[in-house]
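Worked Example 4.2. Consider the chain below.
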Amino acid sequence: MTLQTRMPLYLICAAALGFAANVSAQTPTADQATKQEEMSQKKTDAFAVQGSAPEDWSMIKGHESGSIAKTDALPNSWLAANFAICDENQDQKVTEPEYTKCQKKQHK
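Applying the procedure from the previous section yields the following C-alpha cells:
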C-alpha cells in the first residue's frame, strides 16, 4: 500500500472514533434515565406536591358550575391531593362550601 491510500483510511478511523466518543457522551446513562423518569412521574403524581397551598376557588377550572369534579382538579394541585377529604358527601364533586371548610381544616 502506498502512503496515499493509508492516509484517508487513518483520517476516516480518527473521525469515526471522535464521532463515537461524542455520541456516547450525549447518551444518558441508566442512572440519568432513571432520574428523568422519576421527575416525569412526579409531575403527574398528585401526592408529589401535597404540601402546596390550596388554590383560590375562583381560579380552579370548573368553579363556574358551582362544583368541581375530580377530573377538573389539576394533577399536582392541592385539591387533587385532598379531593377525597374535601368531598364530604362523597358525590364526586366538591362545592365551594365544602372546599372552604376543607381548606380551614387542613390549615389548622
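The longest strand covers residues 67-69. Helices lie at 3-26, 30-44, 78-86, 96-106. Compare this with Example 4.1 before moving on.
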